[in-house]
Amino acid sequence: MGWEALEQWGDGAARTEPLTGGTANDVWSVRLGGRRAVARLGTRSDADLQWETSLLQHLDREGLPVPAPIPTTDGRLYADGLVVMTYVEGGPPTTEDDWRRVADTLRRLHELTRGWPQRPGWRSSTDLLHSGTGTKIDLGAMPAEAVERCRAAWARLVGRPTCVVHGNPDNPGNVRVTADTVTLIDWDEARVDVPALDLALPHNAAGLDVDELDVASQAAAAWEAAVCWKDDYAVRRLAQVRPA
Predict the structure, then answer these.
(1) Taking CA 192 as the corner, what is the angle to CA 187 and CA 193, rounded to the nearest 5 degrees?
(2) Which domain holds residue 226?
(3) Boundaries of each Aminoglycoside phosphotransferase domain copy (predicted)?
């Protein structure tokens, strides 16, 4: 249906301007009866959108700042690939203190989602020790030596508890900071995995010791190399993963 689906949020719903930052979706600022919101149109399945919107509702109820889904006039949280969410104020983190607050927010996310079910069709990093594909990842498309390096990094996570990870919190564009709040936005890469993958942050803001920072940094670089393969960014990230 495309953007015609926005009518399901009310007769006055209208797009106002495109927003930058997303690559897999078409994202716009919209007005809902005078209220500013953000709408995202993509090709995710209903099962995937159900997982994401249910997660955001849960986090919102628990008091973690998130772009909360706004229901259609008949109460649905998505329609024809379209999700409408609350607009989030703020700018990207710029200081070490900002990033420490991001780390605190991530740890709260991890605490609130222990035991959360996996996103439909996705795999965790340790699942990929035995599986070759999962959503955006196809290890068969990578050179065998690259796969060995990635799996060696992920093998260091085996046996650890899992929870929801945001998936890309080290990108300043995925965080909005104000004096009072830190809000994680763009949950496209969220999944159930080991929390260390979220904590390889600028300035070592999560306060990891040397060994744990190495584990987190290697595993996160391997994930991004695999999920983005084979663009220039993926090649650069793979170069940061030590040979197996």
Answers:
(1) 110
(2) 96-239
(3) 17-211
How many CB atoms within 10 Å of residue 167?
23
Q: Domain check: are 119 and 64 in the same one?
A: no
Q: What is the pLDDT of residue 31?
A: 96
End-of-domain residue from the set 23, 52, 86: 86
Strands 191-193 and 35-41: unpaired
Q: Both 43 and 160 in a single domain?
A: no
CA pair distance 136, 26, nearest whole angstrom? 18
Instruction: Give me 72's structure tokens.
Output: 């259609």
Residues 202, 112 share a domain? yes
User: In the prediction, which pLDDT does 1 show?
Assistant: 67
Question: How many separate domains does the chain show?
Answer: 2
The H-or-E segment that residue 11 falls in is none
> Tokens for 130?
């035995």
Model confidence at 136, in pLDDT bands (50, 70, 90)?
confident
Supply φ then ψ for residue 2, to 5 degrees. Answer: 75, -150
Those residues with Cβ within 8 angstroms of residue 110's Cβ, 6 or more apart along the chain or in another chain? 163, 164, 165, 195, 198
- Output the pLDDT for position 34: 87
**Which are the contacts of 97, defined by CB distance < 8 A and separation ≥ 6?**
none
Domain holding 56: CATH number?
A: 3.30.200.20
Burial of 71 (0-12, 13-18, 19+ CB in 10 A): middle
Are 196 and 169 spatial neighbours (Cβ–Cβ below 8 Å)? no
Residue 121: what pLDDT? Answer: 93
Which pLDDT tens digit goes with each residue over 70-99?
999 999 999 999 999 999 999 999 999 999
